[in-house]
Amino acid sequence: MSIKYSAGYKYQLEEQTGYETGIALGVDTETDYFKLDRVGRLTIYKGYAWDGPSGGVDSKNFLRASLIHDVLCQAIGDDLIPQRYQIIADQLLKKIAIEDGMWKVRAEWVYRAVRFHFRGGGKPEGREILLAP
Q1: What per-residue confidence (pLDDT) applies to 58?
Q2: Which of 81, 79, 82, 73 is closest to 117 using CA atoms?
Q3: What is the DSSP string of the chain?
Q4: Using CA atoms, how far apart are residues 31 and 109, in angstroms rounded to an integer?
Q5: Could you tell me the CA-to-CA distances from 128 to 17, 69, 79, 84, 91 in Å, in that order?
Q6: Residue 22 region, left (φ>0) first, then alpha (ψ -120 to 50), else beta?
Q7: pLDDT reported for residue 118
């Protein structure tokens, strides 16, 4: 018998957390891992796994921002949130990193890097599903 799995996760949320995203879709959007309520409140459930800052240094002032950004990018990639909200997700990455003590210059660099990555307007790449054995 085989198993399906994804590689690349470094962190796993040990308790539920949330953030006011400003992404108010007017309907609740919920998965096993998170809920974005109708007014934009994002709740991320205990057990959510993410890879931390992609292409960045894993520092304490970047982890919460990377968590929220990863959830939003996953939701956009899964067509749960319209693609036009990618820029808001990227702006939140910068905003949260600064709230958590990141230097504004570094936060701006991070923002520009993610904007460059998504400049073509395409969806974020999803995780490849692997099979073992």
Answers
A1: 85
A2: 73
A3: --EEE-----EE-SS-EEEE-----SS-EE-SSEEE-TTSEEEE-TT-EE--STTS---HHHHHHHHHHHHHHHHHHTTSS-GGGHHHHHHHHHHHHHHTT--HHHHHHHHHHHHHHTTT-PPPPPPPPEEE-
A4: 31
A5: 26, 19, 17, 24, 26
A6: left
A7: 67
The contacts of residue 100 (CB under 8 Å, 6+ apart) are 60, 61, 62, 63, 64, 65
Q: Kindly list the domain boundaries of the chain, sorted by start residue.
A: 3-124
Residue 3: which residues within 8 A CB-CB, separation 6 or more? Answer: 131, 132
**pLDDT digits 0-9 by tens, 33-45:** 999 999 999 999 9
